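Appendix B. One record, verbatim.
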Amino acid sequence: MADPYNSGIPSTAAPQLNDSMVTTAFELPGYRVARNLGVVRGITVRSRSIVGNFLGGIQTIFGGNITIYTELCEQAREETYRDMARHARQLGANAIIGMRYDATDVMTGLTEVLCYGTAVVVEPVR
């Protein structure tokens, strides 16, 4: 199966998309949406290893932040965010609006993490 995020020929004329141009809001102050390129997403399914589950179980006994799971969640969010941004760049976007995360348990021990938003081309307001 082809990778939907890395297939095709990358556009050399694509505008730059950086973290400051990604927002959970539906507008970017100082910019207007010139074109809507559609929904973009990044997805990953993650599980913790047996050793990770064991260590996480020990941490739950003592309470507080379960760092091994926190790290797993953050890694999954970073990966899906990066894939979403790559998808938007391939479409020629220079911004993403309405960005959201979602997580769903696929089965016991497996979690799907989704990052999605609307890829747009924005122009500075004059």
